[in-house]
Every structure is written in C-alpha cells, then in structure tokens.
Amino acid sequence: MALLEVKIPPMGESISSGVLSKWHVKDGDIVKKDQPLFELETDKITSEGTAEAAGKISLKVAVGTEVKIGQAVASIDSSASAGSAAPAAAPAAESKSAAKSTEQSPAVRRVAAETGIDPATVDGSGKGGRVTKGDVLAAAEGKSAPAPTGPAPLAIPSRTAAPFPTSTPAAAPAPAASSGDRQTRKKMTPLRQKIAQRLVQAQHQAAMLTTFNEVDMSAVMDLRKKYQDDFVKKNGFKLGFMSFFTKAVVNALQEIPGINAQIDGDTIVQNNYYDIGVAVSTEKGLMVPVIRNCDQLNMAGIEKGIADVAKKARDGKITLADLDGGVFTITNGGTFGSMLSTPIINAPQSAILGLHAINDRPVAVNGQVVIRPMMYLALSYDHRLVDGKEAVTFLVKVKQAIEDPARLLLSV
C-alpha cells in the first residue's frame, strides 16, 4: 500500500492556519490527480487543495476544523484502483433507514416524540432523502385521520349551564418551537472575523468623514449606448460604468495627490502609482481585489481586469497577490439598490468612493426642470490626512469627468 498524505499547502508568510470549510470528496472515494479535494478558509482568502496523485482517499479532518499549514488532513492510497471503490458502496442501501433515524434535526425528533411516529418509517422529502418536520406531521395526520368510525355524539347542555358561552374557549397551546427552529449558531469564518476586525479598526484609528455630491449619468449612458455594440465586437465583453469611474478617480488622484497617500505612524507615505481596489461581494464576504496600473490601462483593459478579479473572488480562487496593495477603493452599493451610504475606508488607504443606484430625478438644467438619470456619490476620507477642501475638490473632479467624459481623454 502506497500512502500519500494530503497536507495543507503554504499560502504566504502571514497565513499560519485556516478552517477546512468544505470537502469536495467523501471518505473512501477514488480521486484523480489534480482533482479538487477541499476548501480552506483563512483570514484573507479561500483556497482549494488538490490531489497530488490518484487513488482512494481517507479523510482525517472534519469540516469546520481549524488546521495548521502543513497539517495532514487526508491520505491517498495510490495503489487502489477505481474498481476497489465498488464494494464500499454496497452497504449504502442497508444503512439508509439507519441514517433516517440518526441524522434528524431537533425539530424532527421533537415532533416524532409527540406524535409517536418513527422517522425511519417516513419517506423523506428533504435534501438527500432526509425526513423533515413536515414529513412527520403529514404521516401523523394520515395515521390519525381514519380514527372516527361514526357520527360524533351530540353534547346536550344541562339546565344549569349558561345558554351561551361567556368566553371563547382557549385554543390548545401550540407546542413551543425548539431553539433549533428559532435560532442557529455557527462560528464566524476567519475571513468574516478579519473583515469585522478591519472595519472596526478603520473606524477607531481614522478620523473618518464623508462628503457627498450627485452626478448626472446622461453623458456616460449615451456614450455606452452609442458604442456598446462596437465595443463588444472588438473586446468580447460589455463596457460598464466602473471603467469610467476608475478613470475618473485616477484623473482626480493625479490632480489631488494628497488623497493618494497614507499615514504610517508619524510619517506620510505618498503613493505615485494608481492601483485601484474594486469591492466585490461574495458569498463568504466582501473582498477588494486590486486592478494594477490603472493610469496605463484603457477602458477595455480596466473592464477586463475588473471582470477577471471579480470572477476569481466569487469562485473562491482569489490569491493574496490579487488583494495586496491598492491606493484607493471604489465600492458600488448601487448594484443592490442602495441610494445613499457612508462607505468605510479600506485601511491603510485614506479614502474610498461609494457609488449608488441610478434613478431618474427632476433637476434644474439651464433654468429648466428636466428628468435626468442621477447618482449620489459619497467620498469617505481620513480627516487626519485629507482636508475638507481636498476631499470636496476630488469629488467635484470625479463628477466633472463623468458628466463630461471628454475630460478623461484630455486629463483635465
């Protein structure tokens, strides 16, 4: 028997442990070389572990266990063939009924005890054939329905009884829901814990202030509508709004360099590059992958960069290199319908731009009231480093570039 240990791979000097959040295989499965085996959540990224050889796998660690870098979580018997897995599947049918009785939720067990129904005798409608609370209740109703065999006897009131009830009879109290029905508890993932720590840290350490403005999206929307088909034909993907805002931010950072800086102790660090972070919402939490050298990219390059890192983040394949650095962040709550918000700075950066939903609103243009697609902009900034004049000027520069995109070409 040739056994190969499956170990947690190294993922950078700053990561020493993580939580094994998911197994892609079951104990005893035959796996192929390079097949994904598990997902590991750390305080920064979620990564996959793959098989270094083909064979039969034996799992050593349960889902939810905190593991160290280099720890063995499974072993692979590389001498096993695909045929050796067949006998293992045979007892599955025999254990099906046992699984029904042993893998029940607290609610199912409670209802089973109250009704006298054995869950093992009930056909489950839940995931994987599991018996649900509704399945047990339905079985109980079916069991009790045939009980009456004749007409119910009439109740004749006595002469001393009141002719009409003086109060409505109280209904039989419903059984109290178990804590499993009303609440669930689960440990925060390392990634969620890190997000929470960073957000609280940013609010405690920075003198955060937010300034607002609104922008007329008509020019950008007209430009996209006019050139969208040609853009898609040439590049294979659509022209979105984020590339316009990214270019507008780079232009404003070049005009107001004080915002492209950060505080390190008692030192001001001035950044002379333009790596822009774009907040991406994933099932595991908010991530901010970085688009590098945005001042050197055209609109297509920025759109492609955003699409690539967003896909990696949502697929759980983001790397530390994708998240590292960044001098400024853009977050778009408008994709979820947010009309206005005060975004929190992504430390150690000094500012973040919040975009919001585009809504048609009446506005005054050249003395006339017209309906225009308007968006609120919010710039949160660290007042320790950035003065109000700089912040307001920066936001006005972004507004001007979006309302007149020709400014982006001329860098004015």
Kindly describe this structure:
This protein has 412 residues and is an alpha+beta fold. It folds into three domains: 3-90, RNA polymerase II/Efflux pump adaptor protein, barrel-sandwich hybrid domain (OB fold (Dihydrolipoamide Acetyltransferase, E2P)), CATH 2.40.50; 93-134 and 178-183, no CATH class; 199-410, Chloramphenicol acetyltransferase-like domain (Chloramphenicol Acetyltransferase, 2-Layer Sandwich), CATH 3.30.559.10. Helix content is 31%, strand content 24%. The strands form five sheets. Strands 9, 12, 15, 16, 17, 18 and 19 form a seven-stranded mixed β-sheet that branches. Helix 3 packs parallel to helix 4 and helix 8 (242-255) packs across helix 11 (388-403). Residues 103-140 form the Peripheral subunit-binding (PSBD) domain. E2 component of the 2-oxoglutarate dehydrogenase (OGDH) complex which catalyzes the second step in the conversion of 2-oxoglutarate to succinyl-CoA and CO(2). It catalyses: N(6)-[(R)-dihydrolipoyl]-L-lysyl-[protein] + succinyl-CoA = N(6)-[(R)-S(8)-succinyldihydrolipoyl]-L-lysyl-[protein] + CoA.
- Rounded Rg: 31 Å
Strand fraction: 15-25%
CATH superfamily of the largest domain: Chloramphenicol acetyltransferase-like domain
Contiguous low-pLDDT stretches (5 residues minimum) are 85-102, 144-170
Distance between the termini: 71 Å
How many domain regions? 3
Class per helix and strand makeup: alpha+beta
Total helices: the number is 12
Please state the second-level CATH architecture of the largest domain: 2-Layer Sandwich
Helix content class: 25-40%
In total, the number of strands is: 19
CATH level 1 name of the largest domain: Alpha Beta
Main pleated sheet:
7 strands, mixed
Give the mean pLDDT.
81
Overall body shape: globular
CATH-derived topology of the largest domain: Chloramphenicol Acetyltransferase
GO biological process, one term: L-lysine catabolic process to acetyl-CoA via saccharopine
Catalytic activity: N(6)-[(R)-dihydrolipoyl]-L-lysyl-[protein] + succinyl-CoA = N(6)-[(R)-S(8)-succinyldihydrolipoyl]-L-lysyl-[protein] + CoA
Protein name: Dihydrolipoyllysine-residue succinyltransferase component of 2-oxoglutarate dehydrogenase complex
EC number: 2.3.1.61
